[in-house]
What we know:
Elements: E1 24-29, H1 44-55, E2 61-63, E3 68-75, E4 78-85, H2 92-103, E5 110-120, E6 123-128, H3 136-145, E7 150-157, H4 166-170, H5 176-179, H6 182-199, E8 207-210
Parallel strand pairs: 1-4, 1-5, 5-7
Antiparallel strand pairs: 2-3, 3-4, 6-7, 6-8
Amino acid sequence: MGWMQKKINTPSITSYYSLNSKTPYLLVGLGNPGKKYENNYHNVGFLCLDNFVSKNSQEWHKKDNFNAEVAEFFLNDNRIISIKPQTFMNNSGQAVKKVADYYKVNKNKIVIIHDDFDLEFGTIRTRYGGSSGGHNGVDSIIELLGEDFNRIRIGIKSSQIEGLSAGDIVLHNFPKDQQNEFMPMFKEVGSIINEFIFSQSEIINSETRKFILN
């Protein structure tokens, strides 16, 4: 630094928000457990939450009483409980309900991250409440908790899977060119989660974002 330059003090993120609540947030990535499903379209919720947990220097711990892998940490004064249900997709609600009940998480602080075959790959859509849109994992959660929770829906639709049924699509692996876009996808999902938590919003904003710029 030259002698004529003056160092600028940049405030940390905590300067922008009042984070004194110790409110528990429940982040849920949906997917199927097991190596063979790891890069399936249906496992994009697992993939995104794995990255978010890793970025916060945390590790997963298997909790048989919850039927889930769990990573628990704090973002400033906000308690973050991240889970990957190990019940297979169609019974995801069992794990979500157990954890939500145990930690007494308000439903408007639950965020479900999942695939959506009606949205184009490269698109992320957020909203609070509503139907499952035919997603079996979300159906399971609605059956046990009702519809009032936040969703981060990640598009998987593309020309590469046209003509396939939904059931066939979700158990296909992401092709290599789409796997090359994982990092911008992870970054965008992480930004959405952080913005929601740090703003202390009552519910997640309804919006559509793109992580691939054509």
